[in-house]
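Good morning,

Both structures are done.
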Amino acid sequence: MPGYALPGPQPKVRNSNAAMWLTRLSIQRPVFVIVLLTSFLVMGLFSRSKMEVEGSPRVDIPYVTVTTVYPGTGSAEIESLITKPIEDACSSVNNLRTVNSSSQFGVSFVQLEFSVGTNSQFAAQEVRQKVEGVRRQLPRDVDPPVVDRFDINASPILYLGLRGDLSVKQLRFLSDHEIKYRLSQVPGVGQVEVNGGDVREIQVLV
């Protein structure tokens, strides 16, 4: 039967010159290819051994909080007198992504989230300038707003537990007046916090 061609465009067979060249080189010069791959492997292992590994790398999370205390004021008044003016003032900060606020009895929280890559120190400085500009709109007897940035590198990296034959109240007293003072004198220690136990308090019953 005579052959005939199918109608329409015929598929083209593409030859990979690079793959053929590598295959031909591997067949004709196997020793050279083995030495080349071995050298790459040795250089990779050597480079891996020289890589620096940090157990707790420095991470900059662009979060800034504004905390304002106004004792004896309800949440509705906190919202209208403090939270709303601070939100309006901080809404024009550069690279601002979202604004979350919480108005509670006697205290106002405003949390500002910035775009990834924003320098949190510069962002906090700009927020402070905005808050200072709105201070005259706040009540006169309100506490000064506190602007702070979230620093994950300042989180505690060491927890110590204390137990013994003493009572819980005595252990807390020992931690507050003896252990905390000595640990704070250790070079490199930024802050020491004591949690738990019974704290002595004085109750006045009328």
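Second structure follows.
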Amino acid sequence: MTRLLHEVVGYERVLVVLESGASGTAVIERARELAEREGAAITVVGIARQARTSRGRCGYSAADYNQAITETVAEDLDRARARLGGAGEHATFELLVDTGDDVLARWSALTAFDVVLLPARRRRMRTPRHPAAAALLASGADVRIIDAQGRRLPTA
């Protein structure tokens, strides 16, 4: 916990990628600590991944599914605001609609974050990573992948 704080001292703008699960909760906790101890400006982003609707196919439209995903991510952002406590009063919360074209990396590059905190994703038979890490590294930000115990993991 303290180790992570010392590694990111001096960063002013911190992007937190919100996801459900234990590592997503750990990322919010790290962001709260940074805001309280270091005075970092926190932006929490939730990503609503959208299904594409194909024309000419039988079946239901993806519109209802996409609306439900967007509402769920908005609720997750509200819970993150509550978890941040007093630090959440000055944080910024964004909901990005992702249609599959690296919207997070492009948006992050435009807003010039110093550091990005990503929750680790454990995949069977592989080390924990995050699919957005490579694109975010290319944007120039210092990318940190955080596991469920709040430890920093390698990005490569």
